[in-house]
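Human: Note C-alpha cell order:
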Amino acid sequence: MALQLNRVDRGDLIRAESWNNLVQALVDLDERLSKLESSGLLSDVPVLLDRFPRGDITVGSLLTLEGRNFLEPTNRNVVKIGPIEVKDFLRGSDDKTLVLSIPNSFTGLPADLQLSVSNNNGESNTLSVRLLPLIEIPKGQVVFTRLWPFQEVAAS
C-alpha cells in the first residue's frame, strides 16, 4: 500500500504529528529495504515489508502486516510484538498478509516495541511499532443530586 501524504501549500503549517509520521515511514522503509537486500530473494524466510495502520497503534485495534513467505494455513506463523506472541489471525490473512487484533496483554504502555514474524523457515526482519494502551470508555449514567434542600423565601 502506498503512503498517504497530503500536499501542502506555501504558508501552510505542518503539524509535528504529520512530520513524525513521515520520518517514521522513512525509517521503516529504510529498515525494510535493508532487510530485503540482505535476505536474498530466493530465501524462504519470512520478510516483513509494511504494516497498516502506520504510526501509533492502540491495544485492541486491528493490525495488517504485509510481506512474503508467510505460511498457510496462517496459524503456522507467529507474530511477536515485544514479549507477546500472537498466533491467531483474522480473515484476509494469507501467504503475503497477516491480519491480527492487538491483544490486551501488554504492561508499561505506551511503549516502543519491535515486531517480527516467525515460522518453520525462520524469523523475519523487525519493524518498529509504538503501542498505546486501550482507552476504556466509562460506562453507566450520570446522576445529578441536590446537595442542599431548596428553600423558599417569603415575600415581605
Q: What stands out?
A: Residues 3 and 22 are 9 Å apart (CA to CA). The first helix runs from residue 16 to 39. The first strand starts at residue 47 and ends at 52. The beta strands are 47-52, 57-58, 62-68, 78-81, 84-86, 97-101, 111-119, 122-123, 127-132.
